[in-house]
């Protein structure tokens, strides 16, 4: 993974008011920590940081007062409504060091006819060398029939990358698509549970009632 170089300034004011002032200046409060070093509180340029963090597990070379810190983002806090970045935790890493990170899962291919593909996991916990973290891992469902599944242990990983989470976790499940009758029955059951009463259509209202007489 290519490194992105960012310049940061030391931050000496703390608290919600100070953080809001930083963000008003189009900057992002952050903390750099790890390897037994004292946490380093900094501010990052907002636009540059936003672009850098578009990539999952971005490798960031942070320069503070002329000193370089190789880091990866461990926590990116965003405003739940507007989506802007509120704060970033950056973990210091070293070249050759292995780290455990969550890597996005991308599902590709077309499963067999009349099937539904359910992605159970959107990320996998992997152990990788800090400067060679994969951007994503791919799972193919090409031609898989109903009843098939792909477990975490079956996902093809790049060389030098190992699974760090539960090997038996299901990543993808392929099921038979519901028939029209099954879909209608499920809808009626859900409506009944919610207390929804359907109004009769004109055709249903006009249909004669069945007689018990022969």
From TrEMBL:
It comes from the Bacteria. Residues 98-177 form the Large ribosomal subunit protein bL25 beta domain. SUPFAM superfamilies: Ribosomal protein L25-like (SSF50715). Pfam families: Ribosomal_L25p, Ribosomal_TL5_C. The keyword Ribosomal protein applies. Keywords: Ribonucleoprotein, Ribosomal protein, RNA-binding, rRNA-binding. Residues 6-90 form the Large ribosomal subunit protein bL25 L25 domain. The keyword rRNA-binding applies. Residues 191-214 are annotated as: Disordered. GO terms for cellular component: ribosome. CDD domains: Ribosomal_L25_TL5_CTC. Residues 200-214 have a biased composition (Acidic residues). This is one of the proteins that binds to the 5S RNA in the ribosome where it forms part of the central protuberance. PANTHER family: RIBOSOMAL PROTEIN L25/GLN-TRNA SYNTHETASE, ANTI-CODON-BINDING DOMAIN-CONTAINING PROTEIN, RIBOSOMAL PROTEIN L25_GLN-TRNA SYNTHETASE, ANTI-CODON-BINDING DOMAIN-CONTAINING PROTEIN. Belongs to the bacterial ribosomal protein bL25 family. CTC subfamily. Part of the 50S ribosomal subunit; part of the 5S rRNA/L5/L18/L25 subcomplex. Contacts the 5S rRNA. Binds to the 5S rRNA independently of L5 and L18. This is Large ribosomal subunit protein bL25. It comes from Kineococcus mangrovi.
């Amino acid at each position: 993974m290519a490194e992105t170089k960012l310049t940061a300034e030391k931050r000496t004011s703390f608290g919600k008011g100070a953080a809001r002032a930083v963000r008003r200046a189009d900057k992002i409060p952050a903390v750099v920590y790890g390897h037994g070093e004292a946490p380093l509180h900094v501010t990052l340029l907002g636009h540059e940081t936003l672009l850098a963090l578009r990539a999952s597990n971005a490798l960031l070379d942070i320069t503070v007062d002329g000193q370089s810190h190789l880091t990866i983002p461990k926590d990116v806090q965003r405003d739940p409504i507007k989506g802007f970045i509120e704060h970033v935790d950056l973990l210091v890493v070293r070249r050759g060091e292995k780290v455990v990170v969550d890597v996005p899962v991308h599902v590709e291919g077309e499963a067999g006819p009349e099937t539904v593909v359910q992605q159970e996991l959107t990320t996998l916990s992997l152990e990788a060398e800090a400067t060679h973290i994969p951007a994503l891992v791919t799972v193919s469902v090409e031609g898989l029939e109903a009843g098939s599944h792909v477990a975490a242990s079956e996902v093809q990983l790049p060389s030098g990358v190992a699974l760090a989470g539960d090997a038996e976790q299901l990543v993808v499940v392929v099921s038979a698509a519901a028939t029209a009758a099954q879909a209608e029955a499920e809808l009626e059951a859900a409506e009944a549970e919610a207390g929804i009463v359907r109004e009769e259509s004109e055709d249903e209202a006009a249909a004669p009632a069945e007689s018990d007489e022969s």
